[in-house]
Structures are given as C-alpha cells and as structure tokens.
Amino acid sequence: MKELVCPHCKEKDIKKDGVRTTEKRGKIQRYKCKLCKYRFVVDDGFYRMRNKPEIITMSIDMYVSNLSSRKNEKSIKQTFKHQNKSYEHS
Ligand SMILES: [Zn+2]
C-alpha cells in the first residue's frame, strides 16, 4: 500500500477513522489527519480488486444480451423479408 498523506495539508501522520459503508462501493476505509483533523477516503487498488468480479459478470451479461438481441434482429429481418421484398433495398 502506498504511503498515505493528507490531501489537505500533506501531513503523513494519518490514522484510521472507521469504515464507511456505501451501497455501490461496499466498505470504504476512512482516514483522518492527526494534524488538521481532515477526514478522507482512499480509492486504492484493494477497492478495484474487490469489485473486479462484479464488473466481469456485468460485461458478460452485456455481451450475452447483445448477442441475443443481434440474433433476434436477424430473425426479425428474415421474417420481414418474406413478407415484403422491398425491404432489401433499405
Ligand atoms: Zn491534514
């Protein structure tokens, strides 16, 4: 983990200040600067790693739904072709 510095005063004397739970990100470690009492959160690699499986699942879902919609589009076009031949020009 990279060295933490206060975003407000660049002080390196930082302490943990509890965990904040959010709906989208889950649990986030909060920090507090001992010098200026500024409280902040750090978006570190651990957060991204934890959320990676979710992102992959989401892209697969999007890919599959994209595939099935393409398939549907093709079958709709084929059905339409039989009914109206002028459709081929468009
Ligand atoms: Zn500070």
Task: Explain the overall architecture.
By secondary structure, the protein is an alpha+beta fold. It has one domain (14-83). It is built from 1 helix and 3 strands, in the order E-E-E-H. It has one helix at 45-83, and strands spanning 14-22, 26-33, 39-41. Strands 1-2-3 form a 3-stranded antiparallel sheet, with no helix packed on it.
Q: What's the short version?
A:
This protein has 90 residues and is an alpha+beta fold.
Query: What is the number of helices?
Result: 1
SS class: alpha+beta
Q: Report the major sheet.
A: 3 strands, antiparallel
Mean pLDDT: 76
Uncertain stretches of 5 or more adjacent residues: none
List the ligand species: zinc ion
Radius of gyration: 26 Å
- Straight-line distance between termini: 58 Å
State which percent range the strand residues make up: 15-25%
Helix content: 40-55%
Number of domains: 1
Topology overview:
Layout: E1 14-22, E2 26-33, E3 39-41, H1 45-83
Antiparallel strand pairs: 1-2, 2-3
The chain binds zinc ion.
Residues 6, 8-9, 11, 33, 35-36, 38 line the site of zinc ion.
Entry keywords:
3-stranded antiparallel beta sheet; about 90 residues; binds zinc ion; alpha+beta
